[in-house]
Amino acid sequence: MKTVVEEVVTSWTAGTAESPAQEAQIAKTLRSLMDNGGFAAVKIIGYEHNWSDAGAYPVELMNDAASAFAGVGFHCYSGAVWQQDAFHSAYLNKDILFTECSGVYGSDWWSNLKWYMDNIFIGSIEHNSRSGLPALTAVRLPVATVNRDGSWSMNQEFYAMAQSSKATIPRDAGGPSGKHIGVSVGRSQSWALRITAFVTGRSNANDWLRYSLVVLNWDDYPNGSWNPTPVKTTIELRGQQQKRERSRVSGRSWLTSLYNLRLTSQILPLRHKGYR
Fold it and tell me: Does an H or E element contain 169, and which?
């Protein structure tokens, strides 16, 4: 059993160890014990396995014990992120959490970072997840590597997570985290930009909301070889525009966050236009 910090969430990895009916019975018993023991606020997250079975096992689990579970958790090791939608369509009111993914030592740094953004920190949120987390400890590639001599280094998972979190961390101490809002990319170079958007509320209702964009430019092989290419864009929300040129930002990182976009409007979908 493991604990995932999201308010307070208790979950376990089901995999193929139990059938949906067996896991459901465990959850019902656990839910009763926790409620009677003063832990009614603790959520139980089921499944904790790969995307590939999203429309089967976790749906059967909710069919058997929906009242015991707050939702389900997904991992990345089989299937595709869009398969989360199968569960969401079946149980619109249940939480989806993306809770684990790790890479492999020796793999390409930049390719991994793009994959993490596309599938986890942008992709999973687009497909109804409330969280995007890599494997914090792993037998493969963790967020950080600590060597026997005490030295350490951060891996690409850390940089993807750190960059995207700029758009979601609370603006105020103890305040609300960012919430995903709609965004779209248009025009001829829309394929080159991977983008998501968030709005962060404030502790004081009179303070400015924070609107944030996380943008990944992956136009890095335009002619079949490594040649990062800037993409000029205009970002527009209710008539207010910010012009940006997404290019190489830091070394090989083409990932950036735009935040503290001070807008007086209500929470509405962002429209993102890409231009040559």
Answer: none
